[in-house]
Amino acid sequence: MEKIPFLKPNLITLDSYKHYILEIDNSKIYTNYGPLNDKFEKRILSEYFNDSGAVTTVNNATLGLILAISQLKRPQGKYALMPSFTFSATPLAAMWCGLEPYFIDINEDDWFMNETQLEEVLHQLGDEVAVVVPYATFGNYLDLSYYQQLHQSGIPVVVDAAPCFGTTYNGQHIGQGFGGAVVFSFHATKSFGIGEGGLIYSYDQELVKNIRIAANFGYYGKRESIAFGLNGKMSEYFAAIGLATLDVYQQKISQREQLYNIYLEEIIEAGLLQQGWGVQTTKGRIPFQFFSILCPQDEQNTFYIEKFEHHNIQTVSYFSPACHQQKQFMNCPCADLMVTNEVTKRVLSLPFWEEMDRSIVRRIVHTIVK
Ligand SMILES: *Cc1c(COP(=O)(O)O)cnc(C)c1O
Asked: Residues where N6-(pyridoxal phosphate)lysine occurs (predicted)?
């Protein structure tokens, strides 16, 4: 049986970005918010955010999170509240800002941070809260109305929307109009993959301006540092790949949506839902990165990962271990993480790449039943 890899990144190829690279050869501008970066940002703002608010590119989403958290955190605050069910980059970014991650549980259905529990912890911690960092789990459309209120009430919010570039609901992009910061990743394994890269959006143009200053050594106009900063800039080469990726991205999202629906159909047809298997409740148009599924309650994902491997199918389990189960974050404070513990025991991430067809999906789904 031919091996089915978990991911097969399908970044655009040279022919589609060659003309942009030639522009770099002519302009001799290689970075520092050059003309291609400028064009890339303007297109994103207009094509994805209806020209409301502002965006700035960064060289990866982890630095984007660090920059956004460091701009917004309350100076007297100590904790960054976030779900444990997220990628390690979220708590690490908070730690680079001198904060301690404080882990909150997730909902059983959509796997977003549990807002009721969060509210209780906010009450308990009061002024010790520096920032709240929700995660838009696996690209799912997170309705930000609660977080918008929170942000306006003076508790800053930075959304880890790393896999969400292109996620929309009723035609509106995730984060659009949001006053805090929303951070996206363009890493090769994300659906909008360019190698390494990222983007910060906010409706608050002043915030984006300050993040941009911080991402350029704290320089504003002159070569004099006026703010705490670092180097978080995207090079013109990556902006070139980004521009060419924009041209095909809607098509990529459609392909990924289609593949997701094929998975759902095959899972339903195989009767897995009746046998206790579960899927994430999703909303909107999502550029899915992989297919997440929960094995039945009394079983463990590790059993199935081995079973798949035996059938030459590569699967992983995002995010198992969850952050609070990892050595680096084990001593961080946390609320009752009952759902997180249950989901991390059962979650499996199934292969997902753009050239996959129904016969491959069928082989994967039937391996579960075997
Ligand atoms: C991918 C990812 C990141 C990190 O993005 P990079 O661009 O690789 O730094 C952060 N958070 C989450 C949830 C992610 O999935």
From this structure: 190
**C-beta neighbour count of 183 within 10 angstroms:** 32
Ligand 1 atom nearest to 86, measured from its CA = 13
Q: Is the peptide bond before 103 cis (omega within 30 degrees of 0)?
A: no
Report the chain's mean pLDDT, rounded to a whole number. 97
Q: d(Cα 261, Cα 279) in Å, to the nearest integer?
A: 12
- Tell me how far apart the alpha carbons of residues 178 and 99 are, in angstroms, rounded to a whole number: 23
Cα–Cα distance, 145 to 164 (Å, whole number) = 17
* pLDDT interval class at 168 (50, 70, 90): very high
Q: Which atom, in ligand 1's list, is nearest to the CA of 89?
A: 10
Domain residue ranges of the chain, discontinuous segments joined by +: 14-246, 249-369
State which amino acid sits at residue 229.
Answer: G
Overall pTM surpassing 0.90 (yes/no): yes
Identify the residue whose C-alpha is closest to ligand 1 atom 14: 162
Ligand 1 is surrounded, with C-beta below 6 A, by: 60-62, 86-87, 89-90, 135, 160, 162-163, 185, 187, 198
Q: Which of 58, 135, 160, 199 to mutate to test the pocket of ligand 1 (most atoms within 8 A of CB)?
A: 160
Catalytic residues: 190
pLDDT of 105: 98
Q: Domain 249-369 classified CATH 3.90.1150.10?
A: yes
Q: What is the DSSP letter of 157?
A: B
- pLDDT category of residue 221 using cuts at 50, 70 and 90: confident
**Tokens standing for residue 56:** 């700035």
Q: What is the pLDDT of residue 369?
A: 85
Q: Do residues 348 and 292 touch, judged by C-beta distance below 8 A?
A: yes
Assign 291 to helix, strand or coil. Answer: strand
For the segment 289-335, what is each residue's pLDDT rounded down to a tens digit? 999 999 999 999 999 999 999 999 999 999 999 999 999 999 999 99
pLDDT, average across residues 22-49:
98
- Ligand 1 atom nearest residue 64's Cα: 9
pLDDT digits (tens, 9 = 90+) for 119-149: 999 999 999 999 999 999 999 999 999 999 9
Interval between CA 84 and ligand 1 midpoint (Å): 14
The residue whose CB lies within 8 Å of the most ligand 1 atoms, and thus the one to mutate among 57, 60, 62, is: 62
